[in-house]
Amino acid sequence: MAEFNGVSIAKAANILFEGNITSRTITFEDGSRKTLGIMLPGEYELNTVHKEVIDIQRGVLEVMLPAKDWAKYEGPASFEIPANSKFKLRVHSLVDYCCSFIKN
Question: Cystine design at 20: which of 33, 40, 57, 68 (Cβ 3.0–4.6 Å)?
């Protein structure tokens, strides 16, 4: 899906790791949420509450999911992160991404 229609967009950015990861939250009419953002090169550790699906539009990164080895992704690509977990990222080049939050 190249664009989203019928959404509201948060004016304030989500800023993590001193601005190395930024995003804006978009909310759909049904209440579901996604973030659209940019990750700059670096290494990061993040947490999830809900299951997440990260779609990489462009860029290269590696991800280490719980109980898994490092896996490399180059956009366009996507991967899932389990709910209530920690994961690590090694971002090799600027990554343009969309993160979907899946509530079960």
Answer: 40
Q: Is the dihedral of CA 65, 79, 39, 52 positive or negative?
A: negative
Residue 1 has pLDDT above 70, yes or no: no
Under DSSP, is residue 20 helix (H, G, I), strand (E, B) or coil?
coil
List of domains in the chain: 13-102 (2.60.120.10)
- Phi and psi dihedrals of 86, rounded to 5? -110, 145
> Is residue 12 classed as helix, strand or coil in its secondary structure?
coil
For residue 26, list its beta bridge partners.
9, 34
Residue 95 — φ and ψ, nearest 5°?
Answer: -115, 125
In whole angstroms, give the CA distance from residue 4 to residue 51. Answer: 21
Query: Per-residue pLDDT tens for 89-104?
Result: 999 999 999 999 998 7
